[in-house]
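Aim 2 progress update. The chain analyzed this quarter is reproduced below.
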Amino acid sequence: MILIILALVIVLYCAQAWTLRNAMTGIRYRSDCSELLVEPDTKFDLITTVSNRSRRFIPFLRLEELLPPESEVHVEKAILRRSYMQELRLVTTVYLMPKSSVKRHVCISLPARGRYQFRGANMRVGDFLGLTETSEYIGSLNEIIVYPKAVPKPSVDDMLGGFLGEISARRFILEDPVLAVGAREYTGREPMKNISWNHSARLGKLMVRQFDYTIEPSVTVMLDMNIFSTEKDESALMENCFSLARSVCMVLEERGFRYDFITNATTANAVARWSYMAEGLGARHYYAILEGMGRASLGSTESFGATMTRVFGRREQNKAMIIITPDRAEEKKRLADRQQAQNGGKTIILYGEDITT
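Predicted structure tokens:
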């Protein structure tokens, strides 16, 4: 009897040691998001797959998925925990049969503009005797971009007033619908027939004839994130500017105005060089700008004056401009007025402190 008990103890000890050494062998974790770009408070699914590629039965596996702290989890009786770093963890317990997998959809939403990351999960597997757990972190970086909220349309229309209407009206003033108003540097996108050889010979570089922009109404949108001294909440003012910029672009899209976009906002991992988006119109143009605003952090890469210099290095003569800036700094208005006097074209300044989102 003693020998039987001793043999049983040895078997249990060996099984326990083997389990501890191979606890995570064959276990795989993967997560994906059903959407990559979403509106604030829009629900999407975090799709999680846990696989057991081994031939052994796993009776206990605890999964702690790392979610952005701001996440709203729309699952009944979900077990949520906060780490000491305020990271939100969604806890799930499952068992896995040999050569099997478990797939789960978790409905989540995010409340505000920004770039959010899902960083994988901590997995804990119980030993053969159920006395201890073996843990391992498995990274699975997923990214969600949340667009800025739009400002209510009546508020945007009130702020713009008759600005866009005046620009549209100007196209009917000129008798010649293809009147050339000057020349600008050739970028490679213009047709060869528009090259002005007289200007090119005089300046020593290719120049193209610049036709009056009122033939097809177009606007430059400038988003400024450079805040001068203010007693108000700077982050709230910046967020207001993102919302206001989105709403302005929406209005331009609705009214068929082509527009280019320039900003000094800092950004992370934008698909393109987002500080300048060439003139365009349509969903692709609009959503590329929205993605950049979703990725942007609160800060500026340069001063208001430096951005204005970039604007007028690209801006066509007499082209209208909408400036969106957080605060009413007199220096900004002086710079804008000076550039308008030099280059012509109507300019309007919209302020983040004038709206609430």
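The two ends are 78 Å apart (CA to CA). The first strand starts at residue 27 and ends at 33. These observations will guide the mutagenesis experiments scheduled for the next reporting period.
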